[in-house]
Design a protein that fits this description.
single chain; alpha/beta; 6-stranded antiparallel beta sheet; 5-stranded mixed beta barrel; 30 strands; globular
């Protein structure tokens, strides 16, 4: 039994703003474990037998973050597939299935969102292996989480006819899928829980690549046609596979639930009886976090007095609070979010307002990640900006020039190899150089430790799109 994990890493995570943002969403963050959510998703599969190298689907803007996090985790992917636009889970999974089915149509695809929390990895892996048996028989298998509360934030799946049991206690834990239902109100959720006929919809699946292709062709032929064209016209680019933009943009947007699982007669649900959370809200992080004696979950430099049942997250400085109960407080370098826990879901409406005002805080943090390292904004004003650059060992920026700004580099740690016009030279700690407007230049780190420097920009226009790339080892063009 060969299983290829297909990791869905394309979400934007706006419900965890201001920590999660469009250019650096929650799946790339360390929220509940030392590893990031993406890394944890793959790490917990280590004991699953017959596992192949994963396929990761992500937004094009996140491609270098994904590649770097996989490298850090020691994982070599089968492919990192770039989605030019978001089209929900059905097109994403079909694209992966089409790529795998070229050589091995009977390969099992294990579809997993990149941003879930699983409390018991061993039980989780055992459940995946059990579900894979039904998938080998040609079924489309989904994993339903055994509910322990009347949760209104999840969709539900109704159990159909019982199919089998994983354990010897006689309790069925696999059923035909009877019905997918939307997120219910509280009264309905309580009825679902009391009936014992429903599981939470986890968004995790396992099926043969060829079977998924057949089912989508039957039930959603427009998606099938567009995805087939997007894969056929796609191209390899360094470590990535780019789906054809025009074909993929023309694809209808639909979830695998709606496109196939609600219509097929081969749907099977296997029970996952383990602590699970989709980490889709600040309330979810409070629920899964380690609590102190007053029921608080804290992160970072936090000082509390008479605070209870709250989630307090400090990213960069001391956060002190007095007299709060059931609240969420989240601090980042450029934004602070405060809300009662029961209203924290309304952060999405807040983000929508900020987007209407074209606030950059919805898009990115002050620290932006690049394939060569990171760039952190320290100070910006009229006609100047101060940034901190960190360049990974052996990495290099593009050979470039700017039309509207000059730059001054000061090395504070490590060694820099600087190309400046026709000359090339080394800068060490406490040394600096000036790059005049219009001068062709490049920055490299020839050393074994990260290179850190302060960059002072000055000029009439300081935006990141003022760049002409003449050469780039990462295949980027002008802009970021």
């Amino acid at each position: 039994m060969k299983i290829t994990p297909v990791i869905l890493a394309g979400g934007s995570g706006t419900r965890l703003w201001p920590l999660s943002r469009k250019l650096y969403p929650k799946q790339f963050m360390q929220l509940v474990e030392p590893a990031t959510l993406l890394q944890s998703t793959l790490n917990r599969l280590e004991t699953l037998g017959g596992i192949a190298a994963p396929i990761v689907l992500c937004n094009e803007a996140h491609r270098f973050i994904v590649a770097e996090q996989l490298r850090e985790a020691g994982i070599t992917p089968q492919n990192i597939v770039l989605e030019p636009v978001g089209r929900n889970t059905a097109p994403a999974l079909l694209a992966a299935a089409l790529m795998v089915a070229r050589q091995q149509p009977d390969t099992l695809l294990l579809a997993l969102p990149a941003d879930h929390y699983i409390g018991d990895s061993r039980k989780f892996v055992d459940t995946l292996a059990y579900g894979a048996r039904f998938a080998e028989q040609g079924n489309l298998v989904t994993f339903g989480v055994v509910p322990d509360a009347p949760e209104t934030g999840y969709g539900y799946i109704r159990k159909g006819a019982p199919l089998g049991r994983q354990t010897a206690d006689g309790t069925p834990d696999a059923w035909k899928v009877d019905q997918f239902v939307e997120k219910p109100d509280l009264e309905t959720a309580r009825a679902y829980l009391a009936s014992g006929d429903f599981c939470w919809n986890s968004g995790m699946f396992v099926f043969k690549a060829g079977r998924l292709i057949e089912e989508i062709q039957t039930w959603s032929p427009e998606i099938a046609a567009a995805c087939r064209l997007a894969v056929e016209k796609g191209r390899a680019d360094l470590d990535f596979f780019r789906l054809d933009p025009s074909a993929f943009e023309a694809c209808p947007s639909d979830s695998i639930d709606y496109a196939v699982m609600e219509k097929t007669n081969t749907g099977v649900m296997v029970a996952l009886d383990s602590a699970w959370n989709d980490l889709g809200s600040w309330e979810a992080l409070w629920q899964t976090g380690t609590k102190d004696g007053n029921g608080n979950v804290t992160h970072g430099d936090v000082c509390l007095h008479e605070v209870s049942h709250s989630f307090v997250y400090a990213s960069n400085r001391l956060v002190a609070a007095v007299g709060l109960d059931h609240h969420v407080v989240v601090e980042t370098k450029d934004a602070v979010f405060i809300a009662p826990r029961h209203r924290a879901q309304q952060v999405k409406a807040l983000v929508d307002k900020l987007k209407q005002g074209k606030r950059v805080e919805t898009e990115s943090h002050l620290k932006a990640y690049r394939p060569w390292g990171s760039c952190e904004e320290m100070e910006t004003s009229h006609r100047f900006a101060v940034k901190r650059l960190t360049v990974k060992p052996k990495a290099k920026l593009s050979l470039q020039k700017h039309f509207h700004r000059a730059e001054h580099w000061v090395v504070v740690r490590g060694t820099a190899l600087v190309t400046k016009g026709d000359e090339q030279f080394i800068l060490k700690e406490d040394q600096s150089t000036y790059i005049p407007l219009g001068m062709v230049h490049r920055l490299e780190n020839p050393g074994k430790i990260p290179l850190e420097l302060v960059e002072i920009q000055s000029g009439s226009y300081l935006e990141e799109d003022d760049i002409l790339r003449l050469d780039d080892v990462y295949g980027r063009h002008n802009g970021l």
